[in-house]
Structures are given as C-alpha cells and as structure tokens.
Prior knowledge:
By secondary structure, this protein is an alpha/beta fold. The chain contains six helices and eleven strands.
Amino acid sequence: MKILRFSIKEGELVHDENGNVIGVIDEGFVKLTTKDGIEIDPKSVKPKLDREDLDLVSMIKRIKEVDLLDALLLEKRERRMKLIHTLGEVFEEFILGELSREFKVEAHPRLFLSLSKFSGKRQHNTPDFLVEGKVIVEAKVGKVDYAQIEEYSRFYPGVVALPYAGSCFVPRGWQCVNNVVLDPKRLLDRVRIYLGK
Length: 197
C-alpha cells in the first residue's frame, strides 16, 4: 500500500509532497481525499502522464481493457515499471489464448532442473509456453535476452513473439515474429511450420 500526495492542476493529478490531495493506492484500489477529508472520485481526475506512459497505456488497451488507475497514480519510475509489467502480463494472456484455440499449450514448463543455487550461475529453464511438447513460444515486450533464448534452443525450436513493431536476434532454429497483436496468424503459422502441420 502506498500513500502519496498530489495537487490538482488543470484537472490533472500531479505528484506534490505538499499537495492537498492524499491518495491511498494498492493493487486495484485507489482512494483520494482532500486534506479536509472530502473524498474525490478517482475517475473525475486524470493523472498527469508523459508521452511514453500514454504509449504504454495505449499498447495495453489494444490487447485488453484493464483498469490501470492504481498504476497510473504511482510516481514516474514505479509507474513505468508497473505499466511494462502489466503489458507483459496481458500480452502473455493474449498469446496463451491464441495458441490454446488450436494447440495443446503448457504455460511456464520447467525444461530441466536448475542448479543455479549450487553453481551461482543463472540458468533459464522456464519458457513462457511449450506448444504440443515440441515448440517454445517466448512472449517479449522488452529487450530479448539472447542467452536465455540460446539456452531454450538447446532443447526445442521456437518463436520469440513481440506484440508490436520490433526485431530481435535469435539462435538457429528460432524465429522472431513481430506485430503479433495486430496479426496473430503470423505466429500461429510459424508454430505450425515447426510442428510440421
């Protein structure tokens, strides 16, 4: 739970340590009151957002309609991290939904037992999805970690799925598919090729 202070400027909530609006924010819960205890309807005011935040909100809402008010009221750095995390969650849900319509999909399967606690070296052993026990699909909204994909490529061929425009470098036997939200058929076609269907 976070307690933050705001001022209202031109109908927008702006973070202000000396502001007269107190916000209580928790996962999915927002309560705004003035210093005098008068409750403010959170939907009657908008948080002040920059261009990057607005772009992230737009990307999330193109995939799924989600109430983001609790995230939007956080301070800039934390807000950005929460929005990126939410984008990742809704994109994974989207990918799972698309793949599940046609294939048997296992979410977050463990490929092998990790010995990272003993070796001290990070090992990637849990991809986002394993399709029909033969193809990995990794949903990415940020930077693609080549070492992670390379570890998965030792076990299965696969696809890195990006929600919108972008590109990535992947090992042999893997493909990078962008704009999956706009055209999920491209992802499904790649998976079919790997499955030999």
